[in-house]
Amino acid sequence: MSWRMLAVVCMFAGGAGLAIAADSITAISFGRADQAALIKAYFDPFREATGISVRSLSYDGETTELEQMAKSGKAVWDVIQVESRTLQLGCRDGLFEKIDYSQIGGTTDFIPGAVSDCGVGIFAWSMALAYDASRVNGTPSSWADFWDLKRFPGKRGLRRSAKYTLEIALLADGVAPANVYEVLGTKEGVDRAFRKLDQIKSNTVWWEAAPQPAAFLRSGNLAMSSAYTLWIDSEQQAKKNLKISWDESLYDVDSWAIPKGAPRISDAYKFIAFASKPENQRTLSEELAYGPTNRKALALLDANRAATLPSGEANLKTALKVDAAFWIKHGQELEELFDHWAPPICRQQTDEDEDYEEQAVCQDIYGNLRSNKRGGHTPEERTGHAH
Questions:
Q1: What is the share, in percent, of the chain residues with pLDDT greater than 70?
Q2: Total-model pTM
Q3: Domain span at residue 197?
């Protein structure tokens, strides 16, 4: 999304308008479910506490505008929400200011992975094992249980990507969270992960979009699935049988970063310091099931709520922090291997669509492999190992 498009849809936290006030900062964040929560937890309270308004704009994660600003030396944004990959690459390429942690009160209160050279953690999100208790006899408590089709029969759901799925396979095969990326960084480790996935491949429904696991569990397509816990938490309000097993969950952090040459760096630091306070992070976690990055915020939350969050003490203890640097280095190769190994997902999903043009073999939403009438590769040939 371009800067001009962003300007059209911009909004002030607490009121609409296009003029940039002298006592305001511009904050860029993702225009999804967390926008309203960010306004309530951070943007409006910051204005009330400091008199500095937050001009809140949304973006789609692309860094084209940042790169142009860095080249021209004319930054117009003060604070931006970024994912780990964008943060690391942007820090390397000089798109962000290096953080002076003395201006936000130091680093000791943050969870592992929440502070870096160019970013300060906003919240933790997680991928974990979700299941339908009405369809599972017993309580699956680990990825090893996820693989146990005899004890816990039923279809499984996994994200159709090497990232997250290969880590989960190694965890299921007994690799300790602390050793996952060391193992996955070797050919033997990659082979080990794919061999593990082979064991449940015929019982797996692949998903791509964040809402899908909850929808598939709700419809009865799956007994259990890997899933972004935020979506399961919201779905639990309607379907009480959906549960989360937090053991060996995968977590990552979205961060605040300051664009290089931001026009109001001092106020940007004030905002990040404000947003890092436990009482303000508590408000965000009460609105959405994101985990606070400031450990002290957990003590301010209701105990039951804290237990449902990625950075809850018990949940974090056994969790694996996703290694963005590993995926920057190895991601392209591993995703190509995975894409060749896994069946493509059918672009047409209705029962009437018997002839899937341009897709010799694909998997439908029920986990069935379907071939078009013209033949082509067999499922075994198309989805065989590539390594």
A1: 87
A2: 0.87
A3: 127-251+324-328
